[in-house]
Amino acid sequence: MNSEKQIEELRKLFPVTEHWTYLYNGSIHPCAVPVKEAMQNYLEKWQNGGEAAFFKAYDDFTQLKEEFAELIDAKTDNIVITESTTAAINLAGHLIKPTAQQNVVVTDLAFMSNTYPWLAGQLANAEVRFVKSRDGKIHLDDLVDMVDDNTAVVHICAVTVGSGYRFDLAQIYDITSKFNVSLMIDGAQALGVVDINIKEIPMDFLATTASKWLMGPAGVGFLYMDDRYLKATPPSVGWLSAKNVSDWNVRNCILHDDAMRFQGGIPNLIGVTGALAGLKLLKQIGREFIESRINELTTYVIEKLSRLNVDIVTPSNQNERAGIIFFRTPDYLELHARLKAENIYCGCFQEGIRVDPGFYNTYEELDKFLSVVKDYMTH
Ligand SMILES: Cc1ncc(COP(=O)(O)O)c(C=O)c1O
Question: Which end of the chain is more exposed for a tag (fewer CB within 10 A), N or C?
């Protein structure tokens, strides 16, 4: 078991612990002190120096790409900083551009931003095939049945947002490479907890946000793309897309030879400074430590919940889940209200309760949560 003393120290980085038993870390991760300080520092520099604040923040933007690339074992050249996971998915979608003769394979455990781009808007040309989940999981055979020679892309969430089901990405990659179709992963509920390594699983695209397990602010996202898209025509272009920008020649735009061509204007600099601080904190604490701590906490919650007669949707097998536990009870809204009344912050949707413990949560906090659920189920 991880030392509770070490956790006590780490908790000091999260002032949210003074206000809430916060168990919704996969939604909006609470701001850590160094993340706040980085953003505050930027604001002070901007307030006192105007443009002078830009240069350091722009360096942070470059460093943010480097840190993210290191996290997933990719090259910086292949990373685009976006405004969100959704923007990253849409950019990737434009590079894939499914035609009316093709199909896109998604699952019913996806988040809305994984399916809506193919259902409405400019990318909505192809047939959208939904793999149906069974028992909170996607069974590989069901996915294979949906893929054929006309599949443009298989797009899944590495860890699904509702049931918390975690895919074996190596198995998915085996399928997509066998059919020679593109693979796009949404890593928003995985990265920061689960290891995703591009060298081991050379997917086409990986889209994510800074704001969940990467501990940064909302409004910053990332897109990794495979080398073969680096020379693609960007759906939108701006001054940062061009390698000849310093010529100040408005009649001639020579696009960068890497993913930089997909950047348009100045990114969200305050967000960038916070996202960088989040990734640095993650590195400092150690992703492996975080993963093992979260595994311990989620296993504890699942074991205790399973004795309380609630309907646990999340698979119990540790390899099939990560940071999210989702369960249903009769009148879940009442349970959610009771949890909130005890200052316990959880998610509440799809007729159930979602609880995502972070590494800084304690067993005492989990026991407090479990006792409210127990009380609710027995009275
Ligand atoms: C799996 C997943 N993908 C995407 C998103 C949306 O992220 P963004 O707002 O950065 O587009 C969420 C948000 O909860 C999510 O859980």
Answer: C
